[in-house]
Amino acid sequence: MDTNSPVTPQAGRRLVPLVKWGVVVGCGLAVAFTPAPSGITPQSWRLLAIFVATIVGSILRPVPGGAMVLLGVTAVALTGALPVTEALGGYADKTVWLVLAAFFMARGMIKTGLGRRIALRFIRALGHRSLGLGYALAATDLILATVIPSNGARSGGIMFPIAKSMAEAYDSRPGETAGRLGAFLMCFMYQCEVIICAMFLTGQAGNLLIARFAAQAAGIELSYARWAAAAIVPGLVSLLVVPPLLYRLFPPEVRRTPEASAFAQAELDRMGPTSRSEKLMLLVFALVAALWTMTPLHEVDYAVVALLGICVLLLAGVLEWEELLAERAAWDVFIWYGGLVRMAEALGETGITQRFAEAASQFTVGWRWGAALALLALIYFYAHYAFASITAHALAMYTPFLVVVLAAGAPPYVAVLLLAYFSNLSASLTHYGTTPGPIYFGAGYVSQQTWWRLGLIASVPNILIWSLVGLVWWKVLGLW
Fold first, then answer.
1. Domain presence at residue 128
2. Residue 167 resides in a domain
3. How far, CA to CA in Å, does 465 sit from each of 238, 239, 241, 321, 422?
4. Long-range contacts of 381-384 (CB under 8 A, 24+ apart)
5. Which residues contact 436 (CB under 8 A, 6 or more apart)?
6. Could you read off the pLDDT of 89-129 as tens digits, one per residue?
7. What is the pLDDT of residues 137-153, one digit of tens each?
């Protein structure tokens, strides 16, 4: 999930009246608006006003994200911007159910201990040095991201507890001993996390929304296989370049960690042989990943595959129905994601986005598409300083920037992919850029100044790699 915000509860409570009145005033202006020669209807302007108010509320978060979207969906139906069946139509969307099912998959990984076992096996093999220890944890996250779109569940439920245990095993705790190992591991894991988020459609929940926007604005379907194929080379290059750079700029005092392998072996011994539940979880995990990759061969929808996996886990007793009902994060995402999917889709159908593109494209008249793309992509990337989640950033800026870049003549796939991947990579800049940020930063090992400095430094190779290596790789794939 990717719904955290740096706004404090006190500040949020003070903003509630402002956001509420923003919605009321915006809707009032929209209702009073008369149709212009463009042919855009008053209902469309109402929808735009409510959508913008919802996005602003999602960024400032005077109330939780799910509640903010529920307010927006209700306002859309109440003002007649959309019929009630259409306003609620997002909750019948197959992508929304795919996200819900994948969150349940994460619960199975954590409950059975399979995710922890995978991490411990990597640590046993690679954890003899601090850099290898970091890569062992990142490799685990990479595998889990192929199916689990909750970077919060992966980090908070599996990766962070192990990383913190490793740091404490070397007497590295927040404060004077943070530099021994813990500070390095927290920064290392977060910078790897945002790269991994960009590598898979299931890297984090917002990617599925980005794929929807790409289909609406550019007519391009970013399937699971296509997203991964286009990201695999620049992603692996980033993972080979950025972590060693961090190791050089922010090295841990403890360079050799032979005890980490011994710790992993001891934990594996304590866990005992692989249980029946773990084996079933691994089987379902592999089955879902394989079926998603081979979708063109069997034509079974991604959502159906994910739901099939959950049904198998329920029937096998790996998961209980009560556990799924209690998975609050999954249902929270279901509420806000389902509401925003239909609102964004309906807004695209109004023609307002196209009008924006036509007007904004005047600013890049005469520019070569490469120059327009470079400038707009950089603005898009560093604008993430103002956002507390990847999803909020994409909701506010992805479609407008995409249509402007396309209007400047950029190849559709290049524009769609670069902005999609930058949506994830830009989260590296701050300690609140995406859900794992508060988790790793909140451990207290690293100061905000150091975190932001390393994030800014890491952004440079990421931008260069995904822009240059990415474009060459996409050319090889025949995407432009």
1. yes
2. yes
3. 7, 10, 9, 44, 11
4. 381/422, 381/425, 381/426, 381/459, 381/463, 382/426, 382/429, 382/459, 383/426, 384/426, 384/427, 384/429, 384/430, 384/433
5. 151, 152, 154, 155, 156, 160, 189, 190, 193
6. 888 888 788 778 877 887 888 889 888 888 889 989 888 89
7. 999 999 999 988 888 87
> In 350-469, which residue ranges form alpha helices assigned H by DSSP?
352-360, 369-382, 390-407, 412-425, 436-441, 448-464
Distance (Å, rounded) from C-alpha 149 to C-alpha 2? Answer: 10
Q: Which structure tokens are listed for 461?
A: 């190779």
> Which pLDDT does position 7 carry in this prediction?
40
Q: Where are the alpha helices (DSSP H) in 146-275?
A: 151-154, 160-169, 182-199, 206-218, 224-249, 258-271
Which pLDDT score is estimated for 19?
Answer: 46
Tell whether the model's pLDDT for residue 471 goes beyond 80: yes
CB 31 within 8 A of CB 75: no
Domain membership of residue 168 (yes or no) is yes
How confident is the model at residue 13, as a pLDDT?
A: 47
Q: Report the number of distinct structural domains present in the chain.
A: 1
For residue 305, give its domain range. 94-326
Residue 148 and residue 174 in contact, taking contact as beta carbons nearer than 8 Å: no
Token pair 């129905």 is found at 321
pLDDT score of 428? 94
Q: How far is CA 389 from the centre of its chain?
A: 8
Q: pLDDT band for position 357 (50/70/90)? A: low
Handedness of CA 51, 53, 57, 60 (dihedral sign): positive
- Return the pLDDT at 32: 39
Position 224 in a domain = yes
Cα 259 to chain center, whole Å? Answer: 34
Distance in angstroms (rounded) separating the CA atoms of residues 48 and 373: 26
Q: CA-CA-CA-CA torsion for 370, 380, 338, 70, nearest 10 degrees?
A: -150
Give yes or no for residue 182 having a pLDDT over 80. yes
Alpha helices in 294-364 (DSSP H): 295-298, 302-315, 321-325, 328-349, 352-360
Helices 224-249, 182-199: axis angle to 10 degrees equals 160
For residues 201-206, average pLDDT: 90
Cβ contact 138:196 at 8 Å: yes
Average pLDDT over residues 191-200: 96
